Automatic annotation (TrEMBL):
It holds the Pfam family Pyr_redox_3. InterPro entries: Auxin_biosynth/cation_transpt, FAD/NAD-bd_sf. One of its GO terms (molecular function) is flavin adenine dinucleotide binding. Transmembrane segments: none annotated. Keywords: Endoplasmic reticulum, FAD, Flavoprotein, Glycoprotein, Oxidoreductase, Signal. One of its GO terms (biological process) is ERAD pathway. Residues 636-662 are annotated as: Disordered. Its cofactor is FAD. Interacts with SEL1L. May interact with OS9 and DNAJC10. Interacts with TXNDC16. Belongs to the FOXRED2 family. Probable flavoprotein which may function in endoplasmic reticulum associated degradation (ERAD). May bind non-native proteins in the endoplasmic reticulum and target them to the ubiquitination machinery for subsequent degradation. This is FAD-dependent oxidoreductase domain-containing protein 2. GO terms for cellular component: endoplasmic reticulum lumen.
Length: 675
């Protein structure tokens, strides 16, 4: 049987044997292992190719100084596992409670070696199908009308073994160092090879090219032993607390900013690196000059014959020679292994280091090729957390759900609730959902209304960039309107030049919720799905096209949106206005009255009281209702007159009054409170 299965999985194309799998995953880093987990849970045919002997090979080398900048918060004061993932930036998603990162390290900023060990356990304990020591060196297409996407993906490894798959998931990350070529760049050391021993820099002057976390991490390591450190980059420093982007400079690495601003010799400069040139003198010192000074000269010529900027400007900032120049410019995606038939093209502008993909994480050039993990960050670059574990663990799950619907007819998971649970469902999710919280403005919860708004379907963490394709991508119908729930920062609160600590930076009153600056829930209401044209042309500062109605839940210092008056009541009234219905919960007495005085009952009465459903009354509950003014206190009714307790004057009004039912039902409806 094993032989039959093996031979059945082999395909022969042009004399070459191809081992076939439905899904091929390139890379066994965090994103590749996360994809493998979901594929395995769904019982799909897949294989993961990893060039190294173990998963997470990137973390075996990087960061060079071994301190991760992804937080590992041990305590939140809550036991809700979904909420706690908001503050656990290292764990992958799984059903196994042993595979929470806090069980591997108690450090707030863990060591990278711990991440390597964690990924090894994730792959082994879950028995993921990873083929190690397999470097895919070439990927091409084979047209075939019978294939899922009209073609197969053909992969070749370093041993010239061949593989075929119907869908290709690229989770190889960005690992090729960014290099800037200029005259003298051969004297530059790379971040990937520079010494991490501070003693090697004792008494030296150092120039660092770059201004990201790797540059500041390198500077932090040698700050106490160097003469001084200068840092040059094209753009100004961007602090993560100002931009609210975790990929910008983090506080753990920003010691150089202190020594610069407090005038302790170190400094930051801005300039285009491609305009630089480096000249080495006889003593081995490195001098910074500009490229145009060397246009007609030989860089190997004696330095005395080369014009330096300080020859014309004697206070030129980098006139002092350096002992070392270190390049810390980050990484880019490796496009070299993909055949032109796949049309894997780099992005444009500041996302040119990533491949071009759609908001669904599918390649713009090839159907069936999806990019996962760090390499998919072009979708939300400098906006959200899609380039980091705590973000792409959710986008990877979203891609898996898209594939389940496309290839296996499994609709996007959804839960159906009666309309009376609409407010509660939203409040629950915005208070605990980690995917919405981490992938703010990128992933959204979608509420699809049923006919006559008597019920709704709740879909979690759908990519809003493909909202117009929701019916096709999820297998769900959106014919009666929908709500979109996302998390957002304030429009003008984030930016490298923003003062995020100004005095009145927070909003506390519900009527000013639309001016909230910090991360807060926003609910969009559409009477119909936005079109692709509307999605394409919407304002760039808005995550979605103009809705029919919008509601901001006011920001909260504790990120706890459960305040009855500030959070829940305004939300409920917004939902009621959109649906033209009453979403309050009523006691049986009120429903009884409405049944005799109104043609249409509130949904809570229709779906509860009229079906003989609801809470069973207790003495404690009745006492609470009386104190709140919701029910009449029958225990203090005065029956001391001559009439029997059940006698009345005969009028309907007196009958209702004697039984605690208000004479004016409309006034009762206005004054009714939430249960």
């Amino acid at each position: 049987l094993g032989l039959a299965l093996y031979t059945g999985s082999l395909c022969v194309v042009s004399g070459a044997a191809f081992l076939y799998h439905d899904y091929c995953v390139i890379g066994a880093g965090p994103a590749g292992l996360q994809a493998a987990y979901f594929l395995q849970q769904a019982g799909r045919d897949y294989i993961v190719f990893e060039r190294s002997h173990a998963p997470g090979s990137f973390f075996a080398l990087y960061p060079r100084h071994r301190k991760l900048i992804s937080i590992n918060k041990q305590y939140t004061g809550k036991s809700n596992s979904e909420f706690n993932l908001r503050h656990d930036w290292n764990s992958l998603l799984s059903h196994d409670r042993r595979l929470l990162f806090r069980r591997y390290s108690r450090d707030f900023f863990p060591d990278a070696d711990t991440m390597v060990r964690y990924l090894e356990d994730f792959a082994s304990l879950l028995k993921l199908r990873v083929q190690y020591n397999t470097a895919i060196i070439h990927v091409t297409l084979e047209k075939n009308e019978q294939a899922w996407n009209g073609h197969y993906f053909l992969l070749t490894d370093q041993d010239r073994k061949n593989y075929k798959c119907s869908s290709l998931l690229v989770a190889a990350g960005t690992w090729v160092p960014n290099v800037v070529n200029f005259p003298g760049s051969e004297y530059v050391e790379g971040y990937e090879t520079v010494s991490t021993n501070p003693e090697d820099f004792t008494g030296q002057t150092v120039l660092i090219l770059g201004r990201g976390n790797s540059a500041f991490e390198t500077a932090e390591n040698i700050l106490g032993v160097t003469n001084f450190i200068h840092m040059v980059s094209r753009s100004r420093v961007r602090l993560s607390w100002a931009t609210h982007y975790v990929g910008d400079l983090r506080a753990i690495n920003n010691g150089l900013l202190d020594t610069y601003q407090l005038k302790s010799l170190d400094g930051l400069l801005e300039g285009d690196l491609e305009d630089l040139a480096i000249v080495k003198d006889k003593k081995g010192k490195l001098h910074i000059t500009l490229r145009f000074y060397l246009e007609n000269r030989n860089i190997s010529a004696d330095i005395d014959s080369i014009t330096l900027p300080q020859d014309e400007l004697d206070n030129f900032a980098t006139r002092a020679p350096y002992d070392r120049v270190i390049r810390c410019l980050g990484w880019k995606f490796d496009f070299s292994i993909y055949n032109r038939s796949l049309r894997m093209m780099p992005g444009k502008g500041n996302i040119k280091k990533y491949p071009q993909i759609k908001p669904s994480y599918e390649s713009r050039g090839t159907r069936g090729l999806f990019v996962l993990g760090t390499a998919s960050h072009s979708v939300d670059f400098r906006k959200s957390a899609g380039g980091f574990i705590h973000g792409f663990r959710y986008t990877t799950r979203a891609v898996h759900r898209l594939l389940e619907n496309r290839h296996h007819g499994v609709p996007w998971p959804a839960t159906v609730y009666p309309i009376t649970q609409l407010t509660n469902s939203i409040i629950k999710r915005v208070n605990e959902a980690s995917g919405l919280y981490q992938m703010f403005s990128v992933l959204a919860d979608i509420i699809l209304l049923r006919e006559n708004a008597t019920a709704f379907e709740y879909l979690e963490e759908y990519p809003i960039g493909v909202l117009a394709e929701l019916e096709m991508q999820t297998g769900r119908k959106a014919q009666n309107g929908l709500f979109v729930i996302i998390m957002e920062y304030g429009r003008n609160f984030s930016g490298a030049d923003k003062d995020v600590f100004y005095y009145n930076r927070a909003v506390g009153e519900a009527q000013h919720a639309w001016q909230s600056n910090f991360l807060h829930p926003v609910i969009y209401y559409y009477k119909r799905l936005p079109t692709e044209r509307e999605m394409r042309l919407h304002h760039p500062d808005w995550p979605l096209p103009r809705p029919d109605a919008i509601h901001h839940i006011v920001e909260d210092f504790l990120t706890d949106w459960t305040a009855p008056n500030a959070h829940i009541l305004p939300l409920r009234r917004f939902l009621e206005n959109c649906l033209s219905t009453d979403l309050r919960n009523f006691f049986a007495e009120s429903c009884f009255l409405f049944a005799f005085t109104h043609q249409k009952l509130p949904p809570s009465c229709q779906q509860g009281y009229m079906r003989m459903q609801g809470l069973v009354g207790t003495q404690e509950l009745r006492h609470h209702a009386v104190q709140a003014g919701l029910l009449r206190d029958y225990t203090h009714t005065d029956f001391s007159d001559d009439r029997p307790p059940d006698s009345h004057d005969g009028s309907p009004e007196q009958l209702m009054s004697d039984h605690g039912i208000p004479v004016h039902p409309l006034q009762h409806l206005v004054n009714a409170k939430d249960e």
